[in-house]
Amino acid sequence: MTDACSREETIQSFVEAMGRDFEKESMPRIAGRVFGLLLLETGPHGLQQLAERLRVSRASVSTNTRLLEERGMIERVTLPGDRRDYYRIGEAPGLSMLDKASERIRVTHQLLSSMRYRLADCAPEARSRLRSMERVYEAFLSAIDHAFDELSDTGPA
Amino acid sequence: MTDACSREETIQSFVEAMGRDFEKESMPRIAGRVFGLLLLETGPHGLQQLAERLRVSRASVSTNTRLLEERGMIERVTLPGDRRDYYRIGEAPGLSMLDKASERIRVTHQLLSSMRYRLADCAPEARSRLRSMERVYEAFLSAIDHAFDELSDTGPA
DNA sequence: ACGAATGTTCAGTCTTGACTGAACGAACCG
DNA sequence: CGGTTCGTTCAGTCAAGACTGAACATTCGT
């Protein structure tokens, strides 16, 4: 092949794909692009740098880096003698995502469970259906926990 | 307590909560309400019936029941000598949801993996980060499979 | 002190998609 | 046949929220 590492186009298409992927998870497209770019590029990137590279306003980058930071998917890095903030991929973005998923599931499980309790001793069919749904979420939760352990052993990601 | 089974209000608040919950999963709010109602109520419900009960248009119910049906979360029921369609909770809505989740994860995993392949033998750091992310998704996938088995044994839900 | 650079915030625009009403086709009833 | 009752579809409305540009506060260099 003529160019084993023509990164620019490849990277760009990946970054866009990550943007769309994030959108499906009801997260801002730009957050996905930032995350995707930081996954591929070496070393921390500044806000201005990200804005130019992604052709997006600094405001958007500022907002979305903060979002990603809160979720533990990227980290803010500062250097002595440099006023700027830099961003890089977090310590274990994957685990943060599992954690987030776990949280969401717990909420829905709680909703089902409290509803079943409220039905007290009437509507046995409904209670049974609710219980079944709860079991699914419980299995899902314990599955995530299991994955968590498995990954923490091998080394975090 | 005076009324152990004052269902109406309780049901309504649950139905609305399910609507909001579905919205967080980037699904239409009405789909969540339909699913929530069918979880609680006994026996299949007609389209008109659902529309009135939820105070939404028949068009919305039609669209969203089809969506839920495609996902295997509810079932369409027909009766001999009755032109109408009725809907009830699916055989195993929970498993369908796990299946859907599994599908989504596979897509992202594929995205990461193909990108890593494209990077061939350059950008070792990036490749390593991608590989780490892949491992998380793999663990997640196998976790879901595990949950699947566990539930299929006990009896589907 | 002044000007430039940096990150954040906020009002405003714009896109996306949920939801509706109305129109439609099909199946039934008299 | 009309007249109903279904379910679906489609154009149009509306709301949510992503994104932007401009204004701002802060910090630095000169």
Description:
The structure is a homodimer of 157-residue chains. The first copy, chain A, is mainly alpha-helical. Chain A has 6 helices and 3 strands; from the N terminus they run H-H-E-H-H-E-E-H-H. In chain A, 69% of the residues lie in helices and 8% in strands. A 3-stranded antiparallel sheet of chain A has the order 1-3-2. In chain A, strand 2 and strand 3 (85-89) form a beta hairpin. In chain A, helix 1 (7-24) packs across helix 2 and helix 2 crosses helix 4. The longest helix of chain A has 31 residues, at 124-154. Chain A starts with 6 loop residues before the first helix and ends with a helix. In chain A, 35% of the residues are buried. The interface between A and B is large, with 53 and 53 residues. The structure holds a DNA duplex (30 and 30 nucleotides).
Topology:
Two copies of one chain form a homodimer.
Chain A: H1 7-24, H2 29-40, E1 45-46, H3 47-54, H4 58-70, E2 74-78, E3 85-89, H5 93-118, H6 124-154
Antiparallel strand pairs in A: 1-3, 2-3
The structure holds a DNA duplex (30 and 30 nucleotides).
